[in-house]
Design a protein that fits this description.
Length: 382
């Protein structure tokens, strides 16, 4: 059973804000059937019984009416009803005002962008997906050009730095150009630290990447994700239009489906805000974007590892071989989204296609040859 205050709020959301029953249910965290029941009632009908009377009861309708006409404080309400004969305490007035006060709508400025000026990026997540014999969390990267709304989408099973930068590279190559700046949320791949009143501290790797491609980074203010509303809308659009109802049997199947969707649906639809196709509007924007650099940026994540006595190196739940003579040696590992490379000083000694399965042992057939040769000669590694 709801109280009169909640009844007033339900009717206010319906009559004044135009919300539907499901929307009101989400707003108030209630069952939609309860909302529909009370919207069909022409007046509040309390449960039969003898509810405890309150000194505030004769003044509740006036309080609701006052709050709907002006954003009075609880103190102002208290002063007004005292003049009308209320003899209760301020605390019950304050509690009641908190219950029935109409929700304050958030107001946001609509940002405008010149052609080529800016793109916005964000990650989305959508359950998990089969990868070989295991399942991994499914993520997708979205970049939207702010002027034309041309969109690029790429699915991954990781959001690490090499994937973040690799998706940027693929987006630039998809557009054939580079925006003048990119707006990002405060994810660690882009922003290491935010201190109120100071400039954000950007990830050095992302800064180097931005300098290579000639764009500047703009970080949204903390808690102000609406500042990159174009890409947030894009993330929602991917979920509703591409992913809803899509049967993804295996991770490898989603890439061609995504590109087909971009070319035949997302970028050729008439956009609700611009009333133009993103691909057509992009023609006006193309000349304002920066050219791609001559060479790609090395997006690899680099770390030091030690090869095991079985001349293996662990990466993300799998083991990769190196030549047997490097067993026990300190090596440099470079991980890319599609491959891993291992170096002894600056010499490349092993290269493998990166696996996103788990517990795999991945061996190059040439790597044990030196060990087999030494065994034939009766030698062992020191």
């Amino acid at each position: 059973m709801i109280d009169y205050a909640l009844y007033c709020k339900i009717n206010h959301l319906s009559a004044n804000d135009g919300l539907t029953a499901p929307q009101i249910a989400r707003e108030l965290s209630m069952d939609v059937r309860t909302i529909r029941k009370w919207l069909n009632e022409t007046q509040y009908k309390p449960r039969q019984g003898t509810p405890r009377p309150s000194k505030l009861d004769p003044f509740k309708r006036d309080i609701v009416r006052l709050l709907e006409t002006h954003p009075y404080t609880a103190t102002q309400i208290f002063q007004r009803i005292r003049e009308q004969g209320f003899t209760g305490q301020y605390s019950i007035v304050k509690d009641y005002v908190r219950k029935v006060r109409p929700p304050k709508p958030n107001a946001f400025l609509t940002l405008s962008f010149a052609p080529g000026e800016c793109a916005q990026v964000d990650w989305g997540s959508y359950g998990s997906v089969n990868v070989g014999n295991t399942r991994r969390r499914l993520s997708f990267f979205v970049m939207v050009l702010c002027y034309s709304r041309l969109m690029y989408v790429q699915f991954t099973v990781s959001q690490t730095m090499e994937h973040f930068l690799g998706c940027h590279q693929s987006a630039f190559e998809f557009f054939g150009k580079v925006p003048q700046r990119i707006m990002v949320d405060n994810l660690k791949s882009a922003v290491l630290k935010r201190i109120v009143g100071k400039a954000p501290v950007f990830n050095p790797k992302y800064l180097d990447f931005a300098n290579h491609y000639g764009f500047t980074i703009t970080a949204c203010n903390v808690g102000k994700g609406n500042e990159k509303g174009r890409v947030e809308n894009g993330v929602g659009y991917v979920k509703k239009n591409l992913l809803a109802g899509l049967d993804i049997s295996d991770f490898s199947a989603i890439h061609p489906a995504t590109r087909h969707w971009l070319d035949t649906v997302a970028n050729v639809r008439t956009h609700g805000k611009t009333n133009e196709q993103p691909i057509a509007r992009f023609e006006k924007e193309r000349s304002c974007l920066n050219p791609l650099p001559a060479n790609r940026f090395d997006i690899a994540t680099v770390c030091q590892v030690r090869a095991s006595s079985q001349f293996r190196v662990p990466v993300d739940g799998n083991h990769y071989s190196v030549p047997a003579e490097y067993a026990g040696r300190q090596l440099t590992l470079k991980t890319y989204p599609d491959r891993i490379c291992l170096y002894d000083d600056n010499k490349l000694i092993a290269r493998h296609i990166r696996s996103y399965d788990r517990r795999e042992d991945i061996e190059d057939p040439d790597h044990p040859k030196q060990l087999l040769l030494w065994r034939k000669k009766g030698h062992w590694f020191s």
